[in-house]
Design brief:
single chain; about 170 residues; alpha/beta; 5 strands
Length: about 170
């Protein structure tokens, strides 16, 4: 009887430790799990725009060394990025009451001796439109949402890069 109780308690403890709901893995978006991505070359049309700086910062925070382009290391080329605001709902007076915000980053990952692989990181969000009584609220909302969506798109991009397999 005593061994059954001990086994039961031990199995509960082991199940609790092993399950952990994956909470300890949250926020782990590093790309260092792939040994071929310890060094990366980052190429973009405008190295000083917000997306390029955000990608560079995310790579550096994950311990990836950004080096000059050569044939021996993987390359990330940011092809384009866009922020689109659209109308997704109108009221009876045909005024926009719900807006769609979409941030897209198109990029290529090029491994040595392989063809370029094209990827997109797309993040969308719906939001209620501010009232017409405060027109500046819409501008502030757009700026804030653009920044948040860009950060989320870069985070998604890093996660996508983490899953890419290098085949030599």
């Amino acid at each position: 009887m005593e061994s059954k109780v001990v086994k039961f308690i031990l199995s509960i403890v082991i199940a609790s430790v092993l399950s952990g709901c994956g909470y300890h893995l949250r926020g782990s978006k590093g790309i260092n799990t792939n040994a071929s991505l310890q060094q990366i070359s980052l190429t973009t049309l405008n190295p000083y725009d917000d997306v390029s700086r955000e990608v560079k910062q995310a790579l550096l925070l994950n311990g990836t060394k950004i080096v000059d382009a050569n044939d021996e290391i993987p390359q990330i080329k940011i092809i384009s990025s866009s922020f689109v605001v659209g109308s997704s709902g109108k009221n009876q007076a045909y005024q926009t009451v719900q807006s769609l915000y979409k941030f897209t980053i198109n990029y290529q990952v090029i491994f040595p001796n392989q063809l370029p692989q094209n990827y997109s990181s797309i993040v969308t969000e719906y939001s209620l439109t501010p009232t017409a009584s405060n027109p500046n609220a819409g501008t502030a909302l757009n700026t804030q949402l653009k920044q948040e969506l860009m950060e989320e798109a870069v985070s998604k991009m890093i996660s996508q890069i983490n899953r890419i397999q290098f085949i030599s």
